[in-house]
Amino acid sequence: MIPHRYNEETSLLLQQEQLIAAKTPLPWDQFWIILVLHFSQTLVFKTLAPFIPQLIKDIGVTNGDEQQVGYFVSFLDLSYYVPQTLVVLYWSRLSDRIGRKPVILTASFAIATTMISFGLSRTFRGLLVSRVICGAFNGESGVIKSMMMDITDATNLPKAYGYVPLPSMLAAIIGPLAGGSLSQPADRFPGIFGHSEFLKTYPYLLACAVPALCSAILWLVMYFRLKESVSTKAPFLEMMKQWLSQRSYTKQSVLSRDTLIGSLEANTEEASSKSLSAILTPKVLTVAASSGTLTLFLVAINKLVPLFYATPIEFGGVSLDPPRIGVIFATAGFASGIFQFLFYARLHDRLGAHVIYMTGLGSSIPIILLFPVINALARAHGMSFVTWLAIGVQHVLIIILDMCAPCIALFTRAAAPNRASIGATNGVVQLVSGAARIIAPVCAASFSYSMQEGRDAWLAYYFYMGLAFLAIGTSLALPRDPSLWEERD
């Protein structure tokens, strides 16, 4: 008698045919709010970017030393990312308990208030406090991804991620325009704002008010229109009353706690969020490691590219000026968003998440090798057609690499022990990715180090290839299809 064996190839083929045959429509009544959240989140950073260096100079913290501006700008960035990384797991787990909506409302309120306080700050300490508070109370990035996983399933999540670049692209256009044109309005538009002493005293408040107003309007929209996407253990107000009663009345708190515990025990296992130790399964750790190494490489490359473009040709770069660099990034960002919108869902249906992910990681090696090739072409032919062609090919490969990000979301959803633990699972992944995002800018320093006289010019590229192979190595433990990890009822 021949034993029945699990045929993985046949199973995956049948699953793909079933998914193509019956796809769940996107829940647009809620999904459009998530897209606006992506817009609001991106708008903050894109609005601040144009005027932050000038703001640092104006407040006098550098004492006129232009070389110190970059240091303080980086420190200001870290003042947001470090606290956000430290609390992302807390906010994600809390969203499993009290729901996604209260956490996202808190984050939008934090963005609105801290952006106004940022515009009113006239000292570097005030700027730091505003960004630290915003990072600490902004658990939005991880919870938005969790909510996307809540309202979608395996059939339409790839399509949902195809739409995500569109609001980010729109914010990337509006943000720099708002930040650049509305900063120092009394000087730029003297006929309109020249008589306002308030805007002369706070020249960056009007620019900061744009993302603040967007977050405030979005807060009102979410309060009335956003539906809770998870079944919480207890309503938020009931949990707050429980906490207050514990502080005031010991006996009543015991009774209330017993009542609450009894109601929780009646819930099914699917509605029970697991403890942190139970969430740290091999599957979750595998996805976290893959996401962390991918983020480390992606952010490091994104930091290296503008540095490489701005570096003189004789020192290993291509000597491009800021306007040309801006045009390159704007064009590449637009192309990446359109490509993902048009083709990611279709490619996922045909190839699957694992093939797309491994293909994207495979493009990392030629991306690195093209840096010295572009420099060699610039040395030999200047910024000729063949040099620009090599730059274009490199950005096409980066677009392919960018498609790894939505694949990680599919693996994260599949790795969660149950649906009630999606937020905490996503929090673990975001925690590791956040740590990688903090470390990654340091990697770009390897390029400057290797270009110093007497150093091996290839040292930085060896280092980046090591990061690429690290990302490829951690991905080998991922399954051929996320559905193979789906064990929930």
Percent of residues in β-strands: under 5%
Low-pLDDT stretches: 1-9, 246-271
Q: Span between N and C termini?
A: 32 Å
**Largest pleated sheet:** none
Order of helices and strands: HHHHHHHHHHHHHHHHHHHHHHHHH
SS element count, helices: 25
Amount of helix? over 70%
Whole-number radius of gyration? 25 Å
Determine the oligomeric state from the structure.
single chain
What sort of overall outline do the alpha carbons produce when their principal axes are compared?
globular
Number of strands: 0
Overall pLDDT score: 81
Label the structural class.
Answer: mainly alpha
Structure explained in plain terms:
The chain is mainly α. The radius of gyration is 25 Å and the shape is globular. The relative contact order is 0.12. The N terminus is likely disordered.
Brief descriptors of the model:
25 helices, 489 residues, disordered N terminus
